Input
Amino acid sequence: MQTPANDNSTTPARRALDALAENTEDTVALDRLASSDVLVPVPDDASDEDAADPTAVALPVIEQPGGAPVVPVFTSESELAGLLPYVSRYRLVPLGALASEWPTDELTLTIDAASEHPLTLTSEGVRTLLGRSYG
Output
């Protein structure tokens, strides 16, 4: 089912994910995704001061079944609420900026994990695919 053109939940990042689901080598969609803003949930233990600091972004890490750590980010408030309804705070961050500062080799990134077309990238994929497209 297609989303109406006037639906505000269809963000540039969401459209890029949908395009990449059709063609994983779509460089225009990858560039659009890397330059798009995503919602990064603010961890519950972050202070209000840290949550408001534009120079610091605390990554929320969730343990997957089997122990693999993943950072969930979202293309819209509705995607965030669909997977993490208890999260009340988030930061709007350029996805490519996250890639340029990605912390460890074991940490993966998942965009819109509960959506029809989620995208999960390994640490290397975050840095190479999204980092090269951002700038």
Q: What stands out?
A: Residues 12-133 form a domain with the Trna Endonuclease; Chain: A, domain 1 fold (CATH 3.40.1350.90). Confidence is low (pLDDT under 50) at residues 1-7. The chain has one domain: 12-133. The first helix runs from residue 12 to 22.
